[in-house]
User: Which sequence fits this backbone?
C-alpha cells in the first residue's frame, strides 16, 4: 500500500511526515488483515458448526488426510515465517545481502509448501476423495454424503489458502526486487514490514486449517 | 444568515486543474473521486428505479398483464441488487464522505489516495458484471440469493450477479479501510476525537461495519459460486449441509449492511439540523455513544430475519431481545435531534426540509421495526408488504432523503454554485408526499396479508396497490427534479461564497470550491464542534 | 531481537510437534481441546513476535482483538441456534 514515486526521505504528499505515513501504512494493513480474519473465519465457523453436528463422520473423514505431509508442510510454513521476520529485520538495519538471501529462502519455502500441497491434492484425487467437478467420490466408511461435506470444506479452505499463498509469494517477490534495486531504503523497509505482516497472517490461517482439518481425527 | 451573497471563486481550485478525461479517470484527488462515485451511483439509482417502476406498474392490476412472471421476478431482484449494493451502500460514504472526510479532519487527502481510486474502479467493474447478469438472462432469486434456490434450482445468470456483488464488496472494504486509517492518523492539530463532527463519527462507525461485515458476504457469495461452478456444495442438505448456515452467513453481513446505509444518514442529518436550528447538537456525547452502540448491537440481531426459517426458539428469543435493544440508541438520536430543534432559530431551507422529513420517516421506519422484531408478530408479518414498507421507510425514506439533504447542503462547497432554492423546496416536499403515498399503503397491505414478491394478488388489495403505484410516480418526480435543477445549477447557478449557510466546521473555512489540497494553510482546531451559540450572542 | 524470533520459531515447532503427537499417539475426543489450545498458542506467538504486536501501539492490538471478538459473536450466536434446535 505504500505510495509510489516518493523520494527517499520525503513522505507521500498527503502526509506530514514519514512517521505518520508508516503509522498509516501499518494500520491499513492491520485493518485489511481484520477483513481477512473474518473472511476465513466465517468459513472456519461453518466448519466448526458441522464438526460438532457430525462429529464421528468428520473425524473419520479427517483420518483420510495425510498427517505426515501436512505436518511437514506446517513446519515449512512456520520456518518461512521466521526467515521473513529475519529478512524484515535485516532490511531495516540496512543489511542488504542477508535481507535478500533470507527473503529468497522464504520464497523457496513457500513454493515448496505449495508443491507439497498440490501433491497432497493429487494423492486425494487418485484415492477418489475429490468430489469436485463431478469427479467420482468413493469414501470407505459410513455416511459418505456427510464425508463429502467434510471434503468440500477441505478443498474450499486449502484452495483459498493456496490462493492467498500465491498472492503472498507475489508480494515477497516484489519486495525481493526492491531489495535488489535498493533505490529507496525507507520505502523498502515499509514494504517489507507490511508484506511481512501479510505473510505471517497467512501462516496463522494455516495453523488453524491444519489443526481443525488434519488433527481432529477422533 | 446570508444565503445568496455572491461568492468569488479562488483562482486555483480542485476543478481548475483540468477537465480532460485523463484528469478525471486517473485522479487521486478524493474530491474528484467523490464526483466519479456520484455520477456512477446516480446512474445505478435511476436504473434500479426503472426496475421498481416496472414492478409498481405491474402491480396496478391484480392479474399479471404487463410483465411475464419470469420478467417480474427478474425486475424485483434486479431492483434489490442494484439499489442495495450499487446505490445505498456507497451512497453517502463514497460521495459526501469521500469529499468531506479529509476536509473535515483538516487533511490534504485520504491516507491512501490511489487505493481510493482503485475502489471506484472495482465498483465500476462490479457494476458492469451485474449488468452482464441482467443481459444474459437476469436473476430471479431476489437480492438475497437464498440457497438452495440460487444453487440448485435457479438456472439463471446467478453466477454473474454473485460475481458482481462479490467484486463490489471489495470496493466497500477499501473505502472503509481508507476512512478508518484517515480518521485515526490524519486529524489536524487540536482536532481531538470529541471535536470531530458527527458526520465523521458516523462514517467512522460505518467503516467499521464495512470492514467487519463485508468479508463474510464475500465468503458467502464465493460458496454459492463454488457450488454452481465446481460442485463444492457446503449448503446442500443432501450432503448433510444446512441451508440455514447460508442464512446465518448472509444476514451476518446483510443486517449490518442496513446500518451501513443508515449510519451515514444519521451523520448528515446531525449536521443539517444543528446548522439550520443555529444551535449546537443537543447531547453530542450521547450522539457518539449511540452511534457506536448501534454499530455493535447491529451485529447481534441478524437472526431476526430467520424467525420463520426454522431458527431455534431460544436463539430467536435472544435475537428478538437484541433487536428491541437497538431501539434505545436509535430513539436517543431522535430525541436529541428534536431537542436540538427546541428553541432553535429554525429556517426552512431545502436541506432542512429534507432533514425534517428524515426524522419523520425514520421514526415510522424505526417504530415498525419494533413490531417486526417481536417473534409472534413477525410470524404473521414476515415476507409481507409490511416488511417491504418497513425497510423502505428506513433505507429510502430515511437514508436517501438524508443523502439528498446532504447533497443540497454541501452542493455549494462541492461545485461552487448555489442550487435554485425554490425548486429545491418543491422537490423536498414532493419527495415527502410521494414517499408516504407509495409506502404507507404497503404497511396496510402487509398487515392484511399480502405477501411480497408476487406478481398477482386478490382484487380486494387493488385500491391500496393503485395508491402505492401512483405514489411511486410522485416519488419519481421528487427524484427527477433535483437531477434536473442541480445539473442546471452547474452552469447557471449563482456563484457560492465559502460559507453560504454560516455553518461551523472545517469544510466551511476553505473556499468553495476548495483548493486541490483542501487548505492553503494547515488548520488548527481550538473549539468544540457546532459552536453556534456565538451567533446568538 | 533476532534471538526472540529464533526462540519463537523453536517454540512454534515444539508446539506443532506436541499437537501432532497428541493426535498420533493418544487419540480420543478428550484431547480436541488440547489441539485447539496448541493452535491458539501458535497463533499468539506469531501475532506477538513475528507480527510485532507486542511492541505495537494499543490501537493495533485493539483491532486484532476486535476482529477476533466479532468472529466470536458469529460463532456464539449461530451455534446458539444449531445447538438448541
Assistant:
Amino acid at each position: 500500500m505504500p505510495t509510489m514515486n516518493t523520494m527517499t526521505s520525503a513522505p507521500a504528499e498527503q502526509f506530514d511526515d514519514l512517521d505518520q505515513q508508516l503509522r498509516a501504512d501499518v494500520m491499513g494493513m492491520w485493518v485489511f488483515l481484520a477483513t481477512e480474519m473474518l473472511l476465513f473465519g466465517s468459513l472456519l465457523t461453518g466448519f466448526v458448526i458441522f464438526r460438532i453436528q457430525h462429529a464421528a463422520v468428520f473425524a473419520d473423514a479427517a483420518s483420510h488426510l495425510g498427517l505426515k505431509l501436512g505436518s511437514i508442510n506446517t513446519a515449512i510454513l512456520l520456518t518461512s515465517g521466521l526467515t521473513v521476520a529475519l529478512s524484515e529485520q535485516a532490511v531495516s538495519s540496512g543489511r542488504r545481502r542477508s535481507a535478500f538471501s533470507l527473503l529468497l529462502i522464504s520464497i523457496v519455502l513457500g513454493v515448496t509448501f505449495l508443491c507439497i500441497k498440490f501433491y497432497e491434492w493429487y494423492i486425494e484425487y487418485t484415492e477418489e476423495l475429490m468430489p469436485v467437478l463431478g469427479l467420482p467420490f468413493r469414501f470407505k466408511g459410513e455416511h459418505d454424503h456427510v464425508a463429502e461435506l467434510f471434503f468440500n470444506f477441505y478443498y474450499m479452505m486449502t484452495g483459498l489458502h493456496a490462493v492467498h499463498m500465491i498472492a503472498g509469494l507475489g508480494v515477497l517477490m516484489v519486495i525481493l526486487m526492491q531489495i535488489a534495486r535498493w533505490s529507496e531504503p525507507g520505502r523498502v523497509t515499509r514494504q517489507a514490514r507490511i508484506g511481512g505482516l501479510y505473510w505471517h497472517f497467512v501462516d496463522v490461517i494455516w495453523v488453524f486449517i491444519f489443526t481443525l482439518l488434519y488433527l481432529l481425527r477422533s | 444568515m446570508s444565503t445568496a451573497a455572491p461568492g468569488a471563486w479562488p483562482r486555483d481550485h480542485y476543478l481548475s486543474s483540468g477537465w480532460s478525461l485523463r484528469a478525471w479517470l486517473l485522479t487521486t484527488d478524493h474530491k474528484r473521486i467523490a464526483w466519479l462515485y456520484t455520477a456512477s451511483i446516480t446512474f445505478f439509482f435511476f436504473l434500479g428505479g426503472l426496475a421498481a417502476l416496472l414492478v409498481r406498474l405491474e402491480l396496478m392490476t391484480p392479474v399479471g398483464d404487463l410483465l411475464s412472471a419470469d420478467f417480474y421476478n427478474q425486475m424485483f431482484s434486479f431492483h434489490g441488487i442494484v439499489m442495495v449494493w450499487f446505490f445505498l451502500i456507497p451512497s453517502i460514504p463514497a460521495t459526501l464522505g469521500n469529499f468531506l472526510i479529509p476536509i473535515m479532519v483538516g487533511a490534504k487527502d485520504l491516507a491512501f489516495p490511489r487505493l481510493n481510486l482503485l475502489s471506484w474502479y472495482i465498483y465500476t467493474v462490479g457494476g458492469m458484471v451485474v449488468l452482464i447478469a441482467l443481459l444474459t438472462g437476469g436473476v430471479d432469486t431476489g437480492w438475497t440469493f437464498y440457497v438452495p434456490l440460487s444453487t440448485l434450482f435457479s438456472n439463471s445468470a446467478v453466477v454473474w450477479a454473485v460475481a458482481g456483488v462479490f467484486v463490489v464488496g471489495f470496493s466497500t472494504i477499501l473505502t472503509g479501510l481508507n476512512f478508518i486509517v484517515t480518521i485515526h492518523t490524519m486529524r489536524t492539530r487540536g482536532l481531538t476525537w470529541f471535536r470531530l463532527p458527527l458526520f465523521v463519527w458516523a462514517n467512522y462507525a460505518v467503516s467499521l461495519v464495512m470492514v467487519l461485515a463485508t468479508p463474510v458476504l464475500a465468503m458467502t457469495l464465493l460458496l454459492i459460486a463454488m457450488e454452481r461452478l465446481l460442485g463444492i456444495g457446503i449448503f446442500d442438505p443432501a450432503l448433510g449441509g444446512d441451508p440455514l448456515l447460508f442464512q446465518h452467513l448472509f444476514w451476518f453481513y446483510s443486517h449490518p449492511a442496513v446500518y451501513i446505509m443508515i449510519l451515514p444518514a444519521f451523520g448528515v442529518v446531525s449536521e443539517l439540523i444543528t446548522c439550520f436550528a443555529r444551535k449546537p447538537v443537543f447531547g453530542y456525547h450521547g450522539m457518539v455513544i449511540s452511534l457506536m452502540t448501534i454499530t455493535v448491537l447491529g451485529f447481534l440481531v441478524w437472526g431476526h430475519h430467520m424467525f420463520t426459517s426454522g431458527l431455534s426458539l431460544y436463539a430467536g428469543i435472544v435475537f428478538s431481545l437484541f433487536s428491541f435493544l437497538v431501539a434505545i440508541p436509535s430513539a436517543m438520536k431522535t430525541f436529541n435531534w428534536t431537542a436540538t430543534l427546541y428553541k432553535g432559530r429554525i429556517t426552512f431551507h431545502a436541506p432542512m426540509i429534507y432533514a425534517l422529513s428524515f426524522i419523520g420517516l425514520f421514526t415510522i421506519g424505526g417504530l415498525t421495526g419494533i413490531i417486526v422484531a417481536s417473534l409472534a408478530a413477525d410470524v404473521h408479518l414476515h415476507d409481507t408488504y409490511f416488511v417491504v414498507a418497513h425497510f423502505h421507510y428506513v433505507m429510502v425514506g430515511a437514508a436517501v432523503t438524508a443523502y439528498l439533504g446532504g447533497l443540497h447542503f454541501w452542493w455549494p462547497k462541492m461545485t461552487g454554485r448555489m442550487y435554485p432554492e425554490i425548486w429545491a423546496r418543491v422537490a423536498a416536499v414532493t419527495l415527502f408526499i410521494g414517499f408516504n403515498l407509495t409506502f404507507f399503503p404497503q404497511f396496510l397491505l402487509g398487515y392484511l396479508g399480502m405477501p411480497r414478491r408476487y406478481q398477482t394478488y386478490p382484487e380486494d388489495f387493488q385500491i391500496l396497490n393503485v395508491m402505492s403505484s401512483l405514489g411511486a410516480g410522485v416519488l419519481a418526480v421528487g427524484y427527477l427534479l433535483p437531477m434536473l435543477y442541480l445539473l442546471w445549477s452547474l452552469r447557471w447557478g449563482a456563484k457560492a461564497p465559502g460559507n453560504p449557510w454560516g455553518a461551523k466546521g472545517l469544510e466551511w473555512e476553505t473556499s468553495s470550491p476548495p483548493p486541490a489540497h483542501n487548505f492553503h494553510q494547515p488548520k488548527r482546531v481550538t473549539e468544540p464542534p457546532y459552536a453556534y451559540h456565538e451567533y446568538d450572542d | 531481537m533476532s534471538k526472540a524470533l529464533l526462540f519463537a520459531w523453536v517454540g512454534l515447532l515444539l508446539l506443532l510437534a506436541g499437537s501432532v503427537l497428541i493426535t498420533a499417539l493418544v487419540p480420543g475426543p478428550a484431547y480436541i481441546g488440547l489441539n485447539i489450545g496448541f493452535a491458539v498458542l501458535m497463533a499468539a506467538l506469531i501475532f506477538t513476535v513475528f507480527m510485532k504486536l507486542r511492541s505495537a501501539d494499543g490501537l493495533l492490538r485493539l483491532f486484532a482483538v476486535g476482529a477476533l471478538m466479532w468472529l466470536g459473536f458469529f460463532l456464539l450466536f449461530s451455534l446458539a441456534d444449531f445447538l438448541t434446535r
